[in-house]
Amino acid sequence: MARAADARDWARTGLRGIGNSLYTPFAGVDGEDIDWDAYRELVRYCVADLRHPMLWCTSGVAEFWSLSIAERKRLLEVAVEVGRAADSDLVVQACTAATSVQDCLELTRHAQEVGADIVYIQTPMMETHGGEGTLRFFRYIADRTDIALGMFNSPSSGYVLSAAESARIYDEIPAVCATKEGAFRPRNSRALHALAPDLVIWECDLLVYRAGWLREGIVGPAQLGTVGYLHETPQRPILSQYWELVYADRLGEAVEHARVTGMDRFEMEIGSWFTCYPGRPDYFTHWGGAFKYAAAVLGLPVGDHPDSRPPQAPLPAAAKAQIERAYRNLGLV
Question: Which residues form a coiled coil (predicted)?
Answer without folding.
Answer: none
